[in-house]
Amino acid sequence: xxxxDSEQVARMLVARGYExxxxxTDADVVLLNTCSVRDMAEQKAIGKMGLLGRLRRSxxxxxxxxxxxxxxxRGQELVRDIGHVDLVVGTQKFHRVAEYVDEILExxxxxxxxxxxxxxxxxxxxxxxxxxxETIREHVLKERQATAFVSIMQGCNMHCTFCIxxxxxxxxxxxxxxxxxxxxxxLVARGVREVTLLGQIVNLFGRHEFxxxxxxxxxxxxxxxVHAIPGLARLRFTSPHPIGFRDDLxxxxxxxxxxxxxxxxxxxxxxxxxxxxxxxxxxxxRYFALVQKLRAARPDIAMTTDVIVGFPGETDGDYxxxxxxxxxxxxxxxxxxxxxxxxxxxxASLPDQVPESVKEERNQDLxxxxxxxxxxxxxxxxxRRVSILCEGVSKTNADRLMGRTPGQKIVIFEGGERHIGExxxxxxxxxxxxxxxxxxxxxx
Length: 444
What we know:
This protein is α/β, with parallel strands linked by helices. It has 3 domains: 2-125, Methylthiotransferase, N-terminal domain (Rossmann fold, 3-Layer(aba) Sandwich); 132-379, pyruvate-formate lyase- activating enzyme (Alpha-Beta Horseshoe), CATH 3.80.30.20; 385-442, CATH 2.40.50.140. Helix content is 34%, strand content 19%. Helix 7 packs parallel to helix 8 and helix 12 (316-329) packs parallel to helix 13. The longest helix is centred in the last third of the chain and has 24 residues, at 356-379. It is globular and about 70 Å long. The two termini are 36 Å apart. The mean pLDDT is 93.
């Protein structure tokens, strides 16, 4: 979601004549798009901005700004506490960033001409804006870019007790289906082969704005509409909530061939007591039953998840239940998070906060289980021929290309520029656990 928001801001700045630079030292404007899900993310952003302050000495006209979730939650205090911050823009105002940057630069120019460099001028905008969900629709595409993210909604109404997102992103607001379809059509016309639909709780799209039709939720209606776009080859979505998986969505994996067989399904805990304390609205057995239904609908489906360890009050028995469920399901991969206290969330003030040492021990234990499962899933593909969409040069090896399987696994292989953006089969020759390697002999 942050990557997509950043792309929108970049697109609007470029449209006003700004140019992207790969180095912050060459920049006139540096904007940090921030996350508040964990305290570590906020501390990294604050630390980075502190280091950037040294650039102001040689280029006093530089503009520095915070965008996104941390900007939304902290607002004016970021300007107060970090002396060189000029701009703070919240999650509903990304479309205003370019005009604010123009305004600040102009103000700096006027002050400089008047020899008033010491006068402080900043803009803070964290107010709500009706219709902001319709503003994240512009794209900056690289040459031969094969994949793109499409934001379909903003906000979240779930109010999980550990999560700050409803506070930073606001209430659920969905875009119109026809507008989303138009955006995807434009992307396909520009060469995109795969789109990923984005939302805080993506499968609850439109539940407040649109009605069911023929027993199908607004989200499934959207999937079908996007699936029907000529030229689109692959369709994905993230991140859903287990309670949003009704039969119509489960059946979509069997009925829509462009919908890729991968679901990132946040579990958070395998303990019913913890799930209730987290306000997750399902039990461990209901979660397991959903996994089984998805696997029945699409036997080749890959399952990934999120798990929190060390939630307040989590006992050894609660953690054991999580561990057991993770082993029983056998995920393709998972993100394991040590619980992080977030201000303005109910869980932050709960009693029985778990010591960091216990969180770390459980984190490492669960990572070992997930890693073993991921290795087994990768090894099972060795010797098989799989379809991949080539996305470009590998991030870890500039001499190789990379693509993704339908199940979202990365494949590294030798190839040429002609393969970028194409879908074809490769023979999997080996697995490193988290990356697969393909035989270039099958490439045409």
